Amino acid sequence: MMSPATQGFPSDDYATWPHKCGLSVLAVLMVIGLCGCGSKSPDAQAPPPAAVTVAHPVQKVVTEWDTYTGYLEAPESVSLAARVSGLITEAPFVEGSIVKKGDVLFVIDDRPFKADLDAKLAQQQAAEAQQSVAKVTFNRVEGLRTDNAVSQQDLDNARASIDQADAAVSGAKAAVESSRLNLEWCKVLSPINGRVSNKLVTVGNLVNGGQGQATPLTTIESVTPMYCYVDIDEHSVLKYQKLAFEKKLVSARDGKVPCYVGLSNEIGYPHDGFIDFVDNHIDPTTGTLRERGILENNSGLLTPGFFARLCIPGSGQYQTMLVPDTAIGSDQNQRIVLVVNDQNVVEARVVQMGALFGALRSVLSGLKPEDRVIINGQMHARPGAPVAPTEQTIQIDSAAFSDPGSGGARTIPSTEETSPGETANPAAEPSTQPTTGNNP
User: Fold this and answer.
1) Stated pTM of the model
2) Which residue in 77, 218, 363, 432 has a CA-CA distance of 20 to 30 Å to 86?
C-alpha cells in the first residue's frame, strides 16, 4: 500500500530519480568545462620579444703582441781580485756608486815592487854592458882573423859571446817588464763603466795575488745598455719560424725585431729595444729557446736581476673582425656568438677566436661584416626566438691598439676601421697592441 506522500508517483521512477538528477548535473558541468577550455585566458598570452643590444663587428688591421717573463742581466760583469800580494793602503771609491773605466778602486803597498823594479833595471844595465863588451871583442878578433893572427876557434867564441850577451839582455828586459807590471797592478783600476759593489776587503788587510788564490776585492756591473733574457716555448718558436718563412714577420736572426720591456711595478712597456740574440738550440729539459733583448738604460732604472715582462710581435699585420669579448659564449667545446637576422630572430654562430685586444676579441672565422652581433642581453636571447634589437656602435679604445712602448709615437696605422655609419681614420687609429700572454 502506498502512503499518501507517494501517491501519484510510479514506484520505479521514484527510486531512480536522485540518480538521474545527478547524471544531468554532471553533464551540464562537463559542457561548461569544455566551453571554458575553448577560451584563452589573458594570463596565458605569449611574452613580448626580449630587448637586446646589437652591433656590427669592427674591421681593423692589427698586429698581435706576445708577452714573456724574463730577467735583466748586465752585458758586462767583472769580479775584481788582487793580482799581486800586499797590504791594502787605499780604497778611494764610494760603495754602490757609478765608476768609470780607469778609476782607482784599491791601492796595494807598492814599495816592495818599486825596489824590485830598480833591481831588475840594474840587471838590465849590467847585461847591456856585457853585450857591448862582447861586440867590441868580436870586432877586434874578426880583424885579427883577417891577418891570420888568431884562430877560427877564437872568432867563433867571440861570436858566441855576443849571442849570450843578447840573450842576457832580452832576459833582463823581460824581468824589468814583469816587475813593472807588478808595480802597475798595485793600483786596482776599474776595467769597465758601471756600478761598483761593496768593498770585500778594507784598508789594512793583506791580500794574496796570483792565479788560483787571488783575494776577491769587489764586483762591477755595467749599467747601460741592459739585457733582458726570456725563454720562449717551443710552440711559439714554431709559430715565429712559420711566419718568417711566409715573409709575414722578420726573423730575429735576420733583422732587428722590436721589443718592449716593463718592470713589475710599471704599467705597460716603457722601455724599448730590439732582439739581438737567439740561441742556437732548444733546451730539451724545458722545451724553450732563449732570446735576448737589448735596451737602453739611460735612466738607470733597469737593474740586473729584476724580473721583467718582454713584449715582442707575435704576428704580421692582418685584417680581422673584432667584437666585445663578453659577447662570445661557450657551447661545450665550441665558442659561439648570437646574431640577429633580418627577421629579428636569434641565430647561433660557431666562431674561431683570435687574440685579445683590450676588451675586444679577434674573430678569425664564423662572422660576416654585416652580421648584427648581440653584445648585451645574451641571457634573454635564445636561438630561434624573436628579439627586439637596438643597434649600437662598438666603442674602440685607441690605446688598446697602440705600439706597446711608444704611446702612439711609432704606431702602425690601420688601413680600415669599418662600422656602419663610421669612417675609418688611419692617422688617428693605431693598429697594434700587447696581449697579456703569448696565447690568445
Assistant:
1) 0.69
2) 77
Return the SS3 of 51: strand
Domains of the chain: 52-62+317-418 (2.40.420.20), 66-73+224-313 (2.40.30.170), 83-109+187-220 (2.40.50.100), 111-184 (1.10.287.470)
pLDDT for position 24: 52
Q: How far apart are CA 6 and CA 260, in angstroms?
A: 114
In the numeric block, which cell numbers belong to residue 305? 736581476
The per-residue pLDDT for range 50-106, each reduced to its tens digit, is 899 999 999 988 888 899 999 999 999 999 999 999 999 999 999 999 999 999 999
CB within 8 Å of 88: residues ≥ 6 apart: 106, 107, 108, 109, 201, 202, 203, 204, 205, 206, 207
The kind and range of the H/E element at 310 are: strand 307-313
Angle at 132 between CA 130 and CA 136, to 5 degrees: 115
Distance set, CA 44 to CA 103, 381, 384, 388 (Å): 94, 21, 21, 21
To the nearest 10 degrees (0 to 180), the angle between helices 152-184 and 111-146 is: 160
Residues 6 or more apart whose Cβ sits within 8 Å of residue 285: none
Gap between the terminal Cα atoms of the chain: 105
- pLDDT tens per residue across span 382-437: 999 999 999 999 988 776 676 776 543 333 333 333 333 343 333 333 334 444 44
Beta-sheet pairing, 50-55 with 387-391: parallel
